[in-house]
Structure formats: structure tokens, C-alpha cells
Amino acid sequence: MRYVDLAVILIYLIGITWFGARFGRGQRSLRDYFLGGRTTPWWAISLSIVSAETSTLTIVGTPALAFGGNLGFLQIVLGYLLARIVIAILFLPQYFRGEMFTAYELMRRRFGERIRKLTASIFLVTRALAEGVRVYAISLVISIVLGTGIEASIVLIIVLTIFYTFEGGMTAVIWTDVVQMSLYVIGAVLSFWVILGHIQGGWAHVTAVAGAVHKFTVFDFRFSPSMDFFARTYTFWAGVAGGCFLTTASHGTDQLMVQRLLSAKDERQSRTALLASWVVIFVQFTLFLLIGILLYVYYQDRHLPAPAQMDRIYVDFIWNNLPPGVAGLIVAAILAAAMANISAALNSLASTTVMDFYRPLVRKRRGSAGDDKSDIRLARFATVVWGVVLLTIGLLAQHVHSVLEAGLAIASIPFGALLGVFLLGVLTKRVREWAAMAGVAAGLATVLYVRFYTPIAFTWWVLIGTTMTFLVGFAASLFQAPGAAED
After folding, report:
1. Are the CB atoms for 259 and 100 separated by under 8 Å?
2. Which of 300, 306, 396, 477 is buried most deeply by CB count within 10 Å?
3. Radius of gyration of the chain (CA)
């Protein structure tokens, strides 16, 4: 055991848990618990968006992608910028008309209660599965550091995160995101220079070795109207189109991100936070990919075999090669990313459960929205329940090949249907609820078929699902009775 490193990690875990729990003071309503009272500055929301978008999957999985490939993943990041522009133009004005707590309240306003529950249910299932994979990803880190089994590692990280999310709500999520993102950025920069210091010849040697095998290649403009073209994950066309549609869905219709945007004081600050986050995310992805290239050169120079599980390569190097204290700081940074994601997921899952399922039921039965104190108690209870769900899924997610690609693939299956029905809501007037539901069913069925029966890469799934949902929903609206269009 390396007691200095373990001390650093322990101090971090205790400190961030205490810091997050402090934000529970003064919460008087669900607006405070789920939206932070809408008093959070734009820059903090922006960093919180980046923290959620980066995740442990990025820290653990992105270096592995560059180690086995090149910088082609950055093509997807270009699509992220286009998506943010689309969201700022189409969705943010809708979300700031009145006060909304979840993205799916927009669906209720436009179509009705059934679509609201359908889209909210899709979010709950998808987010739980994706976060379960992230929980497993962080268990890899903890098991390497502490030498514990996967099960004990998952329980530890879930319990600590539940505690401060339970107490602090969305305010705790955002401000712990800011602290934790700062920590893992510092950790990544520090690890970059430490790894580079282990390579004889420095950066010049890295460029010579990695350049010879095209590790610095970013763009793949190859195009052909064939199945092989759609089977390639990282091309310019798949990256821009796929990255744009995936991020429009995740940041524009997924409560995990929309809740952050809704926490801003007004639409202008929300838009600023969203657009500013792209600059940071681009720099971060580049940094983690370059770390993967450094590790490739390090392994080549020493004629070391690549680990059987590629997602362990970054963490293995940190723990086994960095000086005492430094390794602990960087591992704490990786834990920071994990806890940031899990806390945000717990809060967004709880908010959707309470606002889209419980509160409408209370209003229907009692003719009121219930009282805030009991609602906050329920929100905290829902947080604990979803924590148990994520723990369970994390235990079942031990057989994935790449945690980064698994997380993106899970999200890509339903996101097309969600984005398609949101676009039907904001771009059309004649489509009504039953037509929109038909579109969602068609979009989900199409993507499931593509997933299990074709070689098409996951980067295309959201585009395909969105297109099918929109076309089927609009076509179904043509069979409505005359005068059935909405105003």
C-alpha cells in the first residue's frame, strides 16, 4: 500500500462529500433542490456541463482510443459545436417560456401527458443504463488503487455520492462539478508531463514514433455509398453528423443536461454557458487523446505488451509509475469525474421521477401540487432509490469491451426517438399526440434493428432514429381528422 497516495485520496473523498452536503442548508422548495434557485452563474453551469460531458468514461476510455487508433475521435467533437448552436436556437427559447423543472414538461405542453410520461420513461431507462456503465468504469480505478473487488469499489463510490447529492441537491451537483472538474483537468495536465518525462527524447521522439504510424491523423474524408462507409465509427461525415445529432439529443432532450441549462438565471446566461462549454470540451478531449499517444510511444519504447483490458492502460500507468502523492492526486481526479457524473445523474433521475410522475399524480388526485417539504423528502428518497439502481446496473456491466463506446452506444439507441419527437414539437404545428407516439415507436424500432442486425456504427444511430421518428410522426399526422392540428 502507498500510504501517501491513499491519504490524498481519502482526504479528497471526505472533503468533497462534506463540501457538497453543506449546500443542503436553506432549501425551501423543489425549485431550490432541483434548479439551485436559479441563482448559479453561467460560468459555473458551463463547467458543470463539461464535467458531465467529460465523465470517467472519457478519462479512462479516451486514452485507450488513441493508444489503439489516432485522433479521429475529435471529428465527433466538431459535431458537438453544431449541436450547441441548434439547441440555442431551437430549444432554449422553449425551455424558458415559463418555469420548467424537466425537459419533458415541454412535451406535455405541446402534445399531452402521455408523451411526457413516454419521453420521461425513456430518459429514466437510458440514463440509468448509461450511468451504470460509468459506475463500473470507476470501479476499475478503485479496484486498482485499493486492491478491492469490483463489488466493494462500486458500493464505496455510490454511497459517498448519494450522501452529498441527497443533502445538497442541484446546487451541490453544480458546485462540486466545478471543484471536481478543476481537479481532474489539473490531474490530466500533470499526468501528461509526467508521462512525457518518462519518454527518452521528449516530444520530438513522440512525434517521430507516433507520426510514423499516423497517430496524429484527425480527419477521414473517405466517402462511399456502401455499408462499409456507415460501419466506420470515426470518419468526418459520421463525426460531424453523428456528433451533432447525439449532442443535440443529449444536451437538448436529456434531463441530465437540460436541468443544468434550466438552472441558469435566464435564457441568455443559459446560452452563454452552453456555447462556452464547447471550447473547454474540445481542449479536454484533445488532452486525453494525446495522453493515449504518449502511452503508445512509452509502451513501444519498452516493448511492453498492451494490457488485455485497454481501458486500464491510463490508470495502470498512473498507479505504477508516478511518484507518491502525484499518483494519489490524479486518481483522486478520476474519482472526482465519477462522483460528478453520478451525483448529476441521481439528481436528474430524481427530478424526473418527482416532477413528471409523482406531482402530476398528486394534482390529479388531490387537486393540488402537494407541499414543498414533503416533496423534498420524496426527492431525497428517490435519490437513494436511484442510487441503488445504479449500483445494481454497475455490478451487471462487467463484460463490456470499451466503457466509453458502451456508454455512447447505450445513449445512442433512444436518443434519436427523443430528438425526433422534440423536433416534431418545436418545428411543426399539426402533429398531435398519437402521431408523435407513432413516430417514437418507429424511431426506437428502427434503431434497435440497426443495432442488432446491421454493422452500422453507433455514430449514425441518433441521426437514423431522429429522421425516422420525425418522418413517421409527420406522416401519421396527415391522417388526423380535419381541424385536429394544434394551434
Report:
1. no
2. 477
3. 22
